[in-house]
Amino acid sequence: MTEVVSLMDIDDDDNAGDRSAKPINKGKSGAAPSDGKATPWVEKYRPQSLADVAAHRDIIDTIDRLTSENRLPHLLLYGPPGTGKTSTILAVARKLYGAQYHNMILELNASDDRGIDVVRQQIQDFASTQSFSFGVKASVKLVLLDEADAMTKDAQFALRRVIEKYTKNTRFSLICNNVNKIIPALQSRCTRFRFAPLDPVHVNERLKHVIEAEGLDVSESGLTAFVRLSNGDMRKALNILQSTHMASKKITEEEVYLCTGNPLPKDIEQISYWLLNESFAESFKQISNMKGRKGLALVDIVREVTMFVFKIKMPSDARVQLINDLADIEYRLSFGCNDKLQLGSLIASFTKARASLVAAAK
After folding, report:
1. Of residues 138, 54, 52, 64, the one with CA closest to residue 101
2. Which residue has the higher pLDDT, 211 or 131?
3. Is the separation of the CB atoms in 42 and 210 below 8 Å?
4. How many domains does the chain have?
5. What is the pTM of this model?
6. Given Cys at both, which of 100, 168, 225, 276 links 256, Cβ 3.0 to 4.6 Å?
């Protein structure tokens, strides 16, 4: 889904300037990594061109067309982590600048460089200088601000003015997870693209490519586990794949869950059985024993049980109430509330749901 706010044609004027000015690159590196065994697969298999980006073809095709027509606007790419935002804009930069890539972009991670001084010094200095770059397809430079939602409000207001002042020779690309933290004045100056969580089909295809390239032995159930645990986050999927490979030569579903510390599906089925059929005391005892024996986190159990609730046949109002109760428990656990108290709340929530099931059956 794309939301086009404004388009600004790239000026065709020849821009004079200082070729010696080189950008300071921080945050995620755009350089092609080496193929050494120590290279994180997230970087080793990062898309090098727009055609390699796993999903969001509508967005990619739109940006590709604007780039080819020298009509690239300021960009605001937002959405959950691991959905291809940074990879997309780095691929755009490679297409625009080729071998001059590192001389034409300033890459900053706004979670580290988030104050107004960065805007007034590094960004403004880079944007205000013009460069001779021979052999590139565009005469404008590119400022890439990753995690822009971490910038202070003062820095964002200062950036707004910089964007206006240096549009002729510089384009700005803002990347963030939470677009609501970007001030409206910045949003209105950018073309916005939302990157949704990746479809399981695209995650599956990319993982198969990496598995084949690395010569891994992965079972079908293991591949399904990777896709399920990634939740549409390609970075997470690749990190889990690499860490599981380091722990085991033969990658099965069980190995994936053991490596990540997530409860196995069969464990969740067993816990759900206790919650729906056993007494409060028995459920508390059995779940506590399993937590201790397998080293499971209650927050992971609650999250997985919530997904299991959708498979249970029960009245819709009872399902909604149970899911809300589980969300409250997960929220309290995120603030470090006592595990035993929250386990009691979990069992009590299912006790109420069980009463609704019995009443509906009658």
Report:
1. 138
2. 211
3. no
4. 3
5. 0.76
6. 225
